[in-house]
Amino acid sequence: MQISKIALVAYVVLSLTLPYMLSGDRTMLTFITYVALTTLSITTALLHLRRWVEVE
Amino acid sequence: MSEFLVALTTYLALLALVTLWSRVKTRTGDPVDYFIASRGLSGFVSAMTYAATTYSAFMMVGLVGLSYATGVGALVFELSYLIATVAILAIIGPKVWELSRRRGYVTPTQLLKDSLGSYWGTVLVVIISAVALIPYSAVQIVGPATILSGISRGALDIRMSMTIVAAVIILTTLTAGLRSVAWTDAAQGLIMIVSAITLTVWLALATPPEAMTKLGDLGLLSPLNSFWTPRTLIAYTTPWIFFALTNPQVFQRLYLPKDRKSYLRMVLLFSMFGLVYTIITVLIGLLARGLTELGALPIKVDIGNRASWNNVTPQILSHTHPALTVLVAISIIAAATSTVNSIVLTISSMVSYDTPIPERLKLAVGKAVIILLTLVVYAFALTTPAFVVDLAVASSSLLLPLLPLYLFSLYGLRSRLSYLATSILGFPLALTLATQQIQLPVPKEVIIAASSFTIYLVFYILEKYLPHLFKHSQGQ
After folding, report:
1. Contacts with A55 from chain B: Cβ below 8 Å
2. What is the pLDDT of residues B185-202, one digit of tens each?
């Protein structure tokens, strides 16, 4: 549970800091990175919540 | 025009049917059923009402215009919101959901009153929420009205368009409360996603590869450019990443799923909706700009004038197939009404439950607030010339002082004095900073958030370590 929480917070921090690393004309990289980051966040959130559902 | 009127009438008839069906299911004399559907919504309906409440006319009018004018940085800005919201829904949301059931909360402010203890602090938060959400609610009337008057070529003027939207809000919200809002949100969410995908495909098929090269030459394909400086990105994203906590209309949606499985399904479906809807909305703006730069789509927007960015979507629609124009226009009305009716219903529930109103009058006052608030928003919308993204971000900035209140009410450091002090000092500070043209070394939004936390913590320390100074506040 703790690991997924840390991962989610890390994704938020990454999403806010990544633009500085991706500056320059890197459209595909920006799109792919952000879509991948969002997908990872969603997956981690769902795994985290599935454990919460299971402990009911 | 006649096709549009037929479609608009069909849409309004569909809404009326869903609303009436919801009314049959609603125990209209029961405030808990009226305001939060007795906490009994399925995962699908919870997800669609969360998505339709969150994703408003801001997306198809504001974000399309922002992407068109400023490039791919708009995707970074909006996906940062989604990532943060998903994290909040996974980490903080379950705690809120459980507390709301255990303690019987109907409104977000009941959580504050219960945890932080100040009655008048709560009344103040209700007022702050209502005032702060007026610009954002006005966006939901301005956005579709711009589209309606644009595509009807003057047959429906702005004022008439705004009147139609305001009437839809009152109809869907008043008739059957949350159940009506949630079910119409579900129907409207589907219209929003289908129409946005169709418009993206239409634009993508018309866009040659050279358009991308042109966008790259203009610096619109870089996450940071002349518009998206680090300062601008931080200013836009700071209120946005806390949207799920500070905006009461989405916070209250955490109370709705009927069980844990429904909560999980809500997060799953909302996340998928958000990801797809954000990407295609940004793509619409970028593709339209690429086509304009090649001379294939004659859009006339003054990039130097932010308020004119509202006109990108109406101009795109004036060049698409009439059926597509009608579908997208209806989807924008759907997105707008589904957001503003949720805001109005949430604020009316907060006024009913968290201000000094006798129990027997709660529902009647709540319904009166729905009409009154809609009329106030309608009046504000008539006088609002600003770019819808700026209005939306302004509302969320004004709500930032509530962030420490919600966080500390859930995770310790509870203090009645801090609650009162942050409510009294935080909002005027936010309002002053948001409305004044002051150049500061860091973005105003960061200052509002940081100063709200500082006020809360300073008064927490004072109350804890110098309690004799504040003895009089114990009786409040």
Report:
1. none
2. 788 788 889 999 999 999
pLDDT digits (tens, 9 = 90+) for B290-325: 999 999 988 888 888 888 888 899 889 888 888 888
* CA atoms within 13 Å, Cβ hemisphere of B254: 28
Q: List beta partners, residue B257.
A: B41
User: Residues B229-270: pLDDT tens digits?
Assistant: 888 988 999 999 999 999 999 999 999 999 999 999 999 999
The verdict on a CB contact (< 8 Å) between A38 and B83 is: yes
B257: helix, strand or coil: strand
Supply the pTM of this predicted model. Answer: 0.89
A41 CA: distance to closest CA in chain B (Å): 6
Residue A47: which H helix or E strand, with range?
helix A27-54
Separation between Cα atoms, residue B195 and residue B192, nearest integer Å: 6
What is the C-alpha separation between B174 and B16, in angstroms, rounded?
12
Q: Kindly determine whether residue A42 and residue B271, on different chains, have CB atoms separated by under 8 Å.
A: yes
Q: Which two tokens stand for residue B389?
A: 């993204």
Tell me whether A35 touches chain B (CB under 8 Å): yes
DSSP string, B16-77: HHHHHHHHHHS-TT-HHHHHHGGG-B-HHHHHHHHHHHHS-HIIIIIIHHHHHHH-THHHHH
pLDDT in tens, B417-456: 999 999 999 999 999 988 877 788 899 999 999 999 999 9
DSSP string, B452-468: HHHHHHHHHHHHHH-GG
- Would you call B267 and A49 a contact, using CB atoms and an 8 Å cutoff? yes
CB contact under 8 Å between B219 and A30, yes or no, is no
- Retrieve residue B216's tokens: 């790259």
